[in-house]
Write a structure and sequence with these properties.
With about 600 residues, the chain is an alpha/beta fold. Helix content is about 35%, strand content about 20%. The strands form five sheets. Strands 3-2-4-1-10-9-11-15 form an eight-stranded antiparallel sheet, with helices on one face. Strands 5-6-7-8-12-13-14 form a seven-stranded antiparallel sheet. Helix 13 runs antiparallel to helix 14 and helix 16 packs parallel to helix 18. It binds fructose -6-phosphate (F6R).
Length: about 600
């Protein structure tokens, strides 16, 4: 977690660092800071604040900091609480400044060693050992690059760092092991950051550093060394990311913008992956056909919202593709010692492609001897993408709001594409395939229609804002959608929300029902609606407030205890994707009324790169 950025230019880099940090805040936002070699005073200056980048920006206005070289950081606390002392950059003896993303596992013995060498620690972080180590080696006469290299050899864990030194005031040295890092190649200026989005305002030419790489950059050149210290050339990519793709435009929050971007995101994800009523298998890569031929089952691994997408896919894979599927939370899978099945396709789902548990679970599945791997991901060149045999990118565009919305619905669409190509091998007919493809083509329009409920949901949200709990119910493929609705509500409104398969109600949760516990039911007109109706009657009979998302009003007789939110006729295949959307909007409006920080809810971060 955490976002880092560094810059070497001829102009003042302070505004560049701040703009970059704002674009990295999705990685953490409990404190922020920067360090520059101030011009003209030639001193190492640092500013750190508790809170978001905007607080740092305000504090900067009280200073006259100006510099052609600097590093900056936005933090998601791991070692040590969010405080000014623990905020980055960390400095050693007014000479070395370091920003760091990741975890140094052996920081405790290193800290003792450095204390014996006379270094004084002023924070609880693991990062401070890196600053002191680099200082220590610099004092032994090493150049900054070598001092960083030597220090990194002593660290265990996964990290990306950026360093500046008063001893070499024109350089930024940065390195990655386990955490992403990209170089931005400008004209007469160079940058480094956790992610391309941070660099887009200054350059579109980027280099993705590889595992173990270290770069020394000055304003007019850069040199990359690989893990063995050998100079290497890495290709320059021209990023397709648009600067405004990560801007909020006229929307008050990224989350709302991203919810409304879903028709376009889905259309782009479908893109040219279908033709004449067929899914094009080449979309999964050159080797897909050969790899899919061997597959007899599917093991899905993911976390959070992406896990919910996997749960939905299980219903599709078993009912449409007729292939057995298991779905597991990555943090459980990686430690469970699962029995390997070489014919099981391992599907990892991740918006960021950097989720530590998902990545580790994939590596574990490979080590154990599971079958080929496919990653469904929204970030090209991410660690997960690079570790997988096959990739199906979701083209949702950057998702900045911490609560995942368009990434989720595009993941679902990608999983439906997968379902078709596997189904073909297990008896899915051309006519059935054409029917699914047609349903997928209607998806952007169906989502547009669901977005039309916006105003109604805004009003409905008022009924939830003063509640402390909400129960979500669903059956079959809509049960994971109820889970996702509950996750959205809890993470941004802080209202406790739980989802149950409706049939489980009478096995315990019914005891919770009273008129203070709103119950949301996801109840489209599918084969299970009749069964769901009786579950809803059970709630109704106990005075519970029911809010039913359904195709038509006919679900239950309307009453003062029952409100129907009507979505109209929705094709059954794509129904879970469509029903996710009003639940996102409802959560958004409840959070808005409660006045929470919708895009950056407390204690969370967008990219969970720590275990
Ligand atoms: C919730 C949310 C998280 C993520 C989870 C996995 O709205 O976004 O639950 O889904 O942290 O992240 P990715 O998909 O990046 O692996």
């Amino acid at each position: 977690m955490c976002g880092i950025i560094g810059a070497a230019a001829e102009r003042d880099v302070v505004p560049i660092l701040i703009e970059g940090l704002k674009r990295l805040e999705y990685r953490g936002y409990d404190s922020a800071g920067l360090a520059v070699i101030d011009y003209p005073s030639h001193t190492l200056e640092r500013l750190r604040v508790i809170g978001k980048v905007e607080v740092l920006e305000k504090s900067l206005k009280q200073t006259s900091l100006c510099s052609p070289i600097g590093i900056a950081h936005t933090r998601w606390a791991t070692h040590g609480k969010p405080s000014q002392e623990n905020a980055h950059p960390h400095i050693s003896r007014d000479t070395i400044a370091v920003v760091h993303n990741g975890i140094v596992e052996n920081y405790a013995p290193l800290r003792s060693l450095l204390e014996q060498r006379g270094y004084e620690f002023t924070s609880e972080t693991d990062t401070e050992v890196i600053a002191h180590l680099i200082h220590y080696y610099s004092q032994q006469g090493m150049k900054l690059t070598q001092a960083v290299q030597t220090s990194l050899q002593e660290l265990r864990g996964s990290y990306a760092i950026a360093v500046i030194s008063m001893l070499e005031p024109n350089s930024v040295v940065a390195a990655r092991r386990g955490s992403p890092l990209v170089i931005g190649v400008g004209i007469g200026e160079n940058f480094v950051a956790s992610d391309v989005a941070a660099l887009i305002p200054v350059t579109q030419r980027v280099i993705f550093l590889e595992e173990g790489d270290l770069v020394t950059l000055q304003r007019d050149n850069y040199q990359i060394l690989d893990f063995s210290g050998t100079p290497v050339t890495r290709p320059i990519h021209v990023s397709q990311l648009q600067a405004d793709a990560v801007e909020r435009g006229t929307y008050r929050h990224y989350m709302k913008k991203e919810i409304f971007e879903q028709p376009r995101a889905l259309a782009e994800t479908l893109g040219n992956r279908i033709h004449n009523g067929k899914v094009l298998e080449a979309s999964f890569g050159h080797h897909a056909q050969h790899l899919f031929d061997k597959v007899e089952s599917v093991q899905i691994i993911a976390c959070g919202t992406s896990y919910h997408a996997g749960l939905v896919a299980r219903y599709w894979l078993e009912s449409i593709a007729k292939i057995p599927c298991t779905v597991e939370v990555a943090s459980e899978f990686r430690y469970r010692q699962p029995l390997p099945n070489p014919k099981a396709l391992v599907v990892t789902i991740s918006q960021s492609g950097e989720t530590a548990d998902t990545l580790a679970a994939l590596l574990e599945a490979k080590r154990l001897g599971f079958g080929p791997s496919l990653s469904i991901c929204n970030v090209p060149e991410s660690s997960l993408v690079r570790a997988s045999d096959m990739v199906l990118m979701t083209h949702a565009g950057p998702e900045i709001g911490v609560a995942s919305t368009k990434a989720f619905t595009t993941q679902l669409l990608a999983l439906l594409l997968l379902c078709v190509v596997l189904g073909r091998r297990h008896g899915l007919s051309a006519a059935q395939e054409a029917e699914i493809v047609h349903a997928m083509e209607t998806l952007p329009g169906a989502i547009e229609k669901a977005l039309g409920l916006d105003k109604q949901l805004q009003v409905l949200a008022e009924r939830f804002a003063d509640k402390h709990h909400t129960l979500f119910l669903g059956r079959g493929i809509h049960y994971p959608i109820a889970m996702e609705g509950a996750l959205k509500l809890k993470e941004i409104s802080y209202i406790h929300a739980e989802a149950y398969p409706a049939g489980e109600l009478k096995h315990g949760p019914l005891a919770l029902i009273d008129n203070d516990m709103p119950v949301i039911a996801v109840a489209p007109n599918d084969a299970l609606q009749e069964k769901l109706k009786s579950n809803l009657q059970e709630v109704h009979a106990r005075g519970g407030q029911l809010f039913v998302f359904a195709n038509h009003r006919a679900v239950l007789p309307a009453s003062e205890f029952l409100e129907i939110i009507e979505l109209g006729e929705v094709n059954e295949i794509i129904s879970p994707i469509v029903y996710a959307v009003p639940l996102q909007l409802l959560a958004y409006y409840v959070a808005l009324i409660k006045g929470t920080d919708v895009d950056k809810p407390r204690n969370l971060a967008k990219s969970v790169t720590v275990e």
